[in-house]
Design goal:
179 residues; mainly alpha; 0% strand; elongated
């Protein structure tokens, strides 16, 4: 397997993109303000999902949404760490290919096609990995903003409760699931 094909496999975020798209649809089904969970659409699209699901089962409880956001953020952090480790391996391989190129140049005055291909493979893989890391950074920023956006959008509800009023449906103000 070439470094380029391995980089392509490492930066296939299809499953995480699908998870974010489903989470987005569940927020919509729960009746949340779209601004408060728009980050999930950004995550899904950034990671390669082509469309956002239009129907899903609402979140059963508020904590399930927050837990899912935290879980996806943790998954993306792990993927970024693995991708960074792979990037180090590409860099080591590139250095070795450069040494090979210098040795060939000193011995014969040129570089073999195999060494040229090896160097190109490392450079292509590095480009793919850098793009993948950038996509993961953006997705993680969008995910980490969701709790703040939820809080800002529902601040009036917090004030309502702090004034001594009671919320309907067993205090579940984010989701509309009844008890």
């Amino acid at each position: 397997m070439t470094h380029t094909s391995a980089a392509a496999a490492h930066t296939d975020f299809t499953d995480a993109a699908s998870t974010a798209a489903i989470m987005h649809a569940r927020c919509r089904a729960a009746g949340l303000d779209p601004v408060s969970y728009s980050g999930l659409a950004g995550v899904a699209l950034t990671l390669g999902h082509e469309e956002i699901a239009s129907w899903a089962v609402p979140w059963p409880a508020d904590r399930d949404l927050v837990s899912a956001v935290v879980g996806l953020e943790h998954e993306l952090r792990g993927r970024a760490a693995r991708l960074t480790t792979f990037q180090s391996k590409i860099a080591a391989s590139y250095r070795h290919a450069q040494e090979q190129a210098h040795a060939e140049a000193n011995a014969s005055g040129g570089m073999s096609d195999a060494t040229r291909a090896w160097l190109a493979d490392c450079l292509n893989a590095e480009t793919i990995v850098q793009s993948g890391l950038a996509r993961l950074r953006y997705a993680r920023r969008r995910l980490s903003a969701i709790p703040t956006e939820l809080g800002e959008r529902y601040e009036a509800i917090y004030r309502f409760v702090n004034q001594g009023h009671v919320l309907p449906v067993n205090g579940r103000w984010l989701t509309e699931a009844g008890s």
